[in-house]
């Protein structure tokens, strides 16, 4: 089976949606590891409940970004991870990981990229007065929220929406879309290797 690692920094609702989808769907793949860069993040509790092994790091306690990523990479290799997905991982991926997983790193972003990249895509679209925004899943490259787009889904911003209601709508779309796109990508990789 394809072994997947999820990277997350916060609540982990996408992590949970991915794990549950992989448990119920017919796919020769499993979520084998959670990597977290905030030892107090709620996603670690979800991993424990769901029975997914996890590792947590304090990037600031390393001498450099390279040293941090090398430590993460050692865990990925130790767990024989084939594919990495970023699900609310609020950190720019550096060369150490990019080189080790070329085209094997995927990210979800809460906007229709290239609009509203960065750390607060939902708030930025809302405050800009946009009438629509959405969700993008893409392959990670060295840029911030750039790289080949795998899928996008539009979410309307209605006049009576608040940031909270918009967040709920976006998350609901993410939880459906992300597991599907990951599974489609895994099937594509499996065909290439067959
Ligand atoms: C998600 O909305 C994800 O798209 C976003 O963080 C949230 C994490 O929620 N990612 C980014 O903004 C990346 N630039 P979760 O922890 O509940 O899955």
TrEMBL record:
Q: Which Pfam families match?
A: Formyl_trans_N (PF00551)
Active-site residues? 109
Arranged from A to Z, the UniProt key words for this protein are: Purine biosynthesis, Transferase
* Enzyme Commission no: 2.1.2.2
Reaction(s) catalyzed by this protein?
A: N(1)-(5-phospho-beta-D-ribosyl)glycinamide + (6R)-10-formyltetrahydrofolate = N(2)-formyl-N(1)-(5-phospho-beta-D-ribosyl)glycinamide + (6S)-5,6,7,8-tetrahydrofolate + H(+)
Q: Name one GO molecular function term.
A: phosphoribosylglycinamide formyltransferase activity
Presence of keyword Transferase: yes
The family database entries (SUPFAM superfamilies) matched by this protein are listed as:
Formyltransferase (SSF53328)
Question: Pathway of this protein?
Answer: Purine metabolism; IMP biosynthesis via de novo pathway; N(2)-formyl-N(1)-(5-phospho-D-ribosyl)glycinamide from N(1)-(5-phospho-D-ribosyl)glycinamide (10-formyl THF route): step 1/1
Gene Ontology cellular-component annotations? cytosol
Residues annotated for (6R)-10-formyltetrahydrofolate binding in this entry: 65, 90-93, 107
Site (Raises pKa of active site His): give the residues: 145
Provide the top EC class: transferase
Identify the residues that the record assigns to the Formyl transferase N-terminal domain, covering every copy: 3-182
Positions bound to N(1)-(5-phospho-beta-D-ribosyl)glycinamide? 12-14
What Gene Ontology terms for biological process does this UniProt record contain? 'de novo' IMP biosynthetic process
Identify the PANTHER family for this entry.
Answer: PHOSPHORIBOSYLGLYCINAMIDE FORMYLTRANSFERASE
Entries under NCBIfam families matching the protein: PurN
Instruction: Outline what the protein does.
Output: Catalyzes the transfer of a formyl group from 10-formyltetrahydrofolate to 5-phospho-ribosyl-glycinamide (GAR), producing 5-phospho-ribosyl-N-formylglycinamide (FGAR) and tetrahydrofolate.
Family as reported in the entry's similarity comment: Belongs to the GART family.
This chain belongs to the protein called Phosphoribosylglycinamide formyltransferase
The gene coding this protein: purN
